[in-house]
Request: fold
Amino acid sequence: MTLKFRLLVGALSLLCLFSSSYMSFGFIERHYTLQEVIDSSTNIVFGTVESVDRKRLRAVVKVDENVMGKSGLTRIRINLAVGQRRPESTPEKMIRYFRKSEPVVLFYDRHAGQLNSLGYVGGKWFQCKTFVGDGRGWQDRWWNFVHIEIYMHRTFKGRTDDLQKQVRAILQKTKPILASEPAPEFNQASENYIKILIFSNRKYPAELRTLRQISKIGNYQFAYQITYDPNLPGLERTDILWFGYRALGEDGYLLNRRAEKRIKEFVKNGGVLIVSGQDSEAIPTGWFVGKLRGVEEKTEMGIHPSKNPGDMFQKPNKIATGNIYTEDSWNSWSKPFTLLATNNRRNVAVGMLKYGKGMYLITSLHHETYFQASSNGRLMENLIYCAAKYLDASMPRKTNGKSKAKREDRYDELENKIDKFQQKFRAIQKSIDQLNEVSKRELDKSREKEYPREKDGQPSSTEIPPQQDYYKEINVLLSKLQRKIDLFNREIKGDFSNSKSDLQALEKRLKEFRQSVGDVKDSLTELANEIEKSTK
Reply:
């Protein structure tokens, strides 16, 4: 990309919501939907204004509810005095909308020590920004007011409690990507997980964060591994390879011929390669089997689906295609290539090529900033879902086929574990029965005479220990056993998440086992009470 275009991209990037430069200087001019604001947030809190200092231009908001995410906040202190002074926005203007007991909605994105937020109070949108760090005590930091958002009324205008209702309604229908728990890495995931290797560019971490939050779609579970090495270590364990934003190089192409050959073999043998936006000037296409050429483009918003894009923009998310960010693109594709969407009605925004048993998914998605990546997050999720479905249909190793045989082996292993647990249980139950008999016999004796004592007053060697000690000891053993059962139950749920019949069979046995443990505990309690009453 030429210097002229690099400068243009730098200027355009200032226009992105939640990007650090933009947060300091510019108003949000594009019309964002409330869904987009939610999707770009890690947390949403509802609160009320607790106090206002109009002289020092400060306000304190009491947090009433963590609507999305766990903030750990009880109060939010906002310093309006440091805000920008413009005709449209001054600290003095904004402080008027902070009135005691006024409801407040705060959307924020906390990442890499930076906290960027959009708030709504008294009918006004406003923006705050502060560096809070990653350590303890970040909740006590002052949030620095930036300015009133003069265009955000197009997103919502009205009573704050009505905004709260709309936020709740959206959250009931969709789960924001950034609010999800990060997916596990390869070595933490079982065989049933679909494994995604991300070849990333260290300069652009925004895309990586969004991808890692896509941990489950329907019955598909995903694990991720990140590499910055163009030799792609771990490719042999991978189901989906993701070329991250500008990962192939900006000042020179990073892949060698050996890596290109490995990638083509990976796709031919059944893998899926998903390509994010790349720098067109630096990108040969030796990793691709068809004809394709990079095209220099400026940053654009909005893509145009083709006549037959399949489910790409419908499942699992219905995509607002007018809000998708793209940049440098592709054209001159060969005939087998399927065009799913264009960015300017000419060049590739999203396309597909099947090769061997696998598939290429080519995009021109622009992920320079965190907001651009989160805006494109729903489409990224659809791309991964498309890849997972293709893998399941062409090489069904994650829900049937080869994996099914492995699950059957695992089923046998779990059955053996249950048998071992039951053997332990029977041994404990036998000991309890013996204890019960001894206890009753000794209790009968105690009614007739006291236990014999040695001369020093200590119990004789023939006297059994206090029954409460037996009870406590065995109860501890049973509690340990119960914890093992609970852990075991969670384990089989993960391993058999795609096999309802197997899961139900094991769950039934565990339920019966749990009931037996519960019955034993009840018997022990009755025995302890009987002993206690009889020895008084």
Q: What stands out?
A: The chain has three domains: 3-177, 181-394, 402-445+463-534. The longest helix spans residues 402-448.
